[in-house]
């Protein structure tokens, strides 16, 4: 059984005017029951006693009418997380409510500050796609018939701005945002607006690029998507459905020998830090990739049983991934690439999860002599993810901290870039 409560405030402004102010408070209870290996689940947001009783009965009714599933059931009892000696859970420093949640006027003022700073940054910023602020807290409790009871709570806050520069067919849009578990870790509102505006005007007057094979540097925020494709391919669901280009790949080298990814569930103020997964299984630090070799899959107990393996404490997803760097910062990567394409935006969903074929629309900048020369757009970057993984030449130390996947920019030695001709 799980129960949760979430509260939050979201405001948005555009061109100096308030567009939306939304306060929210959601709560609910979900119940899952097993009759042997038949499963039934039901949930409700009505916490009155008669509603809870009806919800349990509904879950039982569903379980009575489902088919047996040999992989169904709770995670094994011996895998349950246990509190520390003092009876409490490890402090992950993830609870930082922001008083702005109860002060809509201040929230609006911060969003307006971000937008105005961007609009004042450059005369070529003639329009705004708006600025927003969001803040919220959540509390969740999970319990099962093994006797496990675990509590998680967290907070998350964000400020973002987007702008439009130029006119007509020459218009370009971009922006910036900051997100953190503690408001003190957010970038200043005015700095967010200025950075969003700077990114927008930098994209004006893009040029076309001749079709060819070039080195491609994925900026840190785009590099996360490459790790995301890996995660999707090694997830238990994709594997037992035989819908992954990385079937039977555990123990094989997929990356250069220096490449490594570590899961860090106890990272303080980490976006996905947790003492236990969605089934109550104790989390643990472990390598996903080491020396370029895929060490394991990403499994909850159900997918693990389907595959004849053991859960990796990843029911509900991964808990903070750190991609090891082997290079310096962003400027070092540009100099190391010398000549090639910097990708700062990806579009479309052109990834085949079964074959690994990769083809996505992109925009960014052409790099010449280790420096950004001019913006480019209207291009497509293509390859096969297995080949792309093997062709990684560098991971930078310019980690984008705005995600549970912590990676710097990633340089791939050569990819097909479709442009003109």
UniProtKB/TrEMBL annotation:
Stretches assigned to the Metalloprotease TldD/E C-terminal domain: 211-419
Domain Metalloprotease TldD/E central, residue spans: 103-204
BP terms from Gene Ontology: proteolysis
UniProt superkingdom: Bacteria
GO CC entries: cytosol
Name the record gives this protein: Peptidase C69
InterPro entries named among the record's database cross-references: Metalloprtase-TldD/E_C, Metalloprtase-TldD/E_cen_dom, Metalloprtase-TldD/E_N, PmbA, TldD/PmbA_N, TldD/PmbA_sf
Family listed: Belongs to the peptidase U62 family.
Listed Pfam families: PmbA_TldD_1st, PmbA_TldD_2nd, PmbA_TldD_3rd
Protein source organism: Marilutibacter maris
SUPFAM superfamilies: Putative modulator of DNA gyrase, PmbA/TldD
A GO term, aspect molecular function: metallopeptidase activity
Occurrences of domain Metalloprotease TldD/E N-terminal (ranges): 4-63
